[in-house]
UniProtKB/TrEMBL annotation:
Stretches assigned to coiled coil: none
Record NCBIfam families: PRK05461.1
Domain ApaG: 3-128
Origin: domain of life: Bacteria
SUPFAM superfamilies associated with the record: ApaG-like
Name of the protein this chain belongs to: Co2+/Mg2+ efflux protein ApaG
Membrane-crossing segments per the record: none
Pfam family, one: DUF525
UniProt cross-references to PROSITE patterns, sorted A to Z: APAG
Gene designation per UniProt: apaG
């Protein structure tokens, strides 16, 4: 498990290899990840958007921006956490992801960024 704390917000990431399949006559490698966002600060926060940098070992880096996570903009009170599951497709058995969440501190109404630590995506059969 990969973990990092930014401004009292702890991000924990667990990854899994979900399998291979063909799409448009091309082999794809599916990876899943579970992210837990834990509020260790003294103020309630809301996750408003996300930015991902997805690196595939065989192709260029892709940047993905969007509102919230999986259709939600969770409010996380002090001492509480929000967990969600998602995934991505790569054209190779190796890659990594990193990024950040944009959040709002309800006490100050200020926006701030929370680092999503880089995590590896690797198919177990490709490791030696």
């Amino acid at each position: 498990m990969i973990q990092q704390v930014t401004r009292g917000i702890k991000i924990s990431v667990q990854t899994s290899f979900e399998g291979t399949f063909y799409k448009n006559y091309k082999m794809n490698f599916a990876f899943g990840y579970i992210i837990t966002i834990e509020n260790q600060s003294k103020n309630s926060v809301q996750l408003t958007s996300r930015h991902w940098k997805i690196k595939d070992s065989l192709s260029k880096t892709e940047h993905v921006d969007g509102e919230g996570v999986i259709g939600q903009k969770p409010v996380i009170k002090p001492g509480e956490s929000h967990t969600y599951q998602s995934g991505c497709l790569l054209s190779s058995p190796f890659g990594n992801m990193s990024g950040y969440y944009s959040m709002v501190d309800f006490a100050t109404t200020k926006k701030f960024g929370v680092v999503i630590p880089a995590f590896k995506l690797s198919a177990p059969f490709a490791l030696n």
